[in-house]
């Protein structure tokens, strides 16, 4: 199996319904490399874009793809049509620091202080 079958046409569907791609990737491409490609091609006009690969989750055939897996390993035999385009959904997660700050603020707001006289 060489040539066209070793290549996959992938487009990335963003949460607002717009797409990045399609673009051809070798089956040996890692999911982390796909995420780097998304970062490089992220539309500049979009306000809440990912800052790092860790901010991006890729979903294909209902499964969250792991960074260390290859595109070939993640292929779904039921969904992939030879010569067709595979759509992967992109979810951007807010940076962990913002989550931690929000959690700390929530804890401070819910803090109860008792004074005994």
UniProtKB/TrEMBL annotation:
One Pfam entry name: Rad60-SLD_2
Keyword Iron: no
Annotated keywords: Cell membrane, Lipoprotein, Membrane, Methylation, Palmitate, Prenylation
Gene3D superfamilies per record: Phosphatidylinositol 3-kinase Catalytic Subunit, Chain A, domain 1
Alphabetized SUPFAM superfamilies for the sequence: Ubiquitin-like
Main location: membrane
Residue stretches in coiled coil: none
Domain Ubiquitin-like stretches: 8-74
Subcellular location: Cell membrane
GO cellular component terms attached to this protein's record: plasma membrane
Membrane topology according to the record: Lipid-anchor
Annotated InterPro entries: MUB, Ubiquitin-like_dom, Ubiquitin-like_domsf, UBL3-like, UBL3-like_ubiquitin_dom
UniProt function note: May serve as docking site to facilitate the association of other proteins to the plasma membrane.
Name of the protein: Membrane-anchored ubiquitin-fold protein
Organism in which the protein naturally occurs: Ilex paraguariensis
């Amino acid at each position: 199996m060489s040539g066209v079958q070793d290549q996959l046409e992938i487009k990335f569907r963003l949460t607002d319904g717009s797409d990045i791609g399609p673009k051809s990737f070798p089956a040996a491409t890692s999911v982390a490399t796909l995420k780097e490609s998304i970062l490089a091609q992220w539309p500049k006009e979009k306000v809440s874009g990912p800052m790092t690969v860790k901010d991006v989750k890729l979903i294909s055939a209902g499964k969250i793809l792991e960074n260390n897996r290859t595109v070939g390993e993640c292929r779904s035999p039921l969904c992939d049509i030879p010569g067709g385009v595979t759509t992967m959904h992109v979810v951007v997660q807010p940076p962990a620091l913002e989550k931690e700050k929000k959690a700390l603020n929530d804890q401070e707001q819910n803090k109860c202080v008792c004074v005994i006289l």
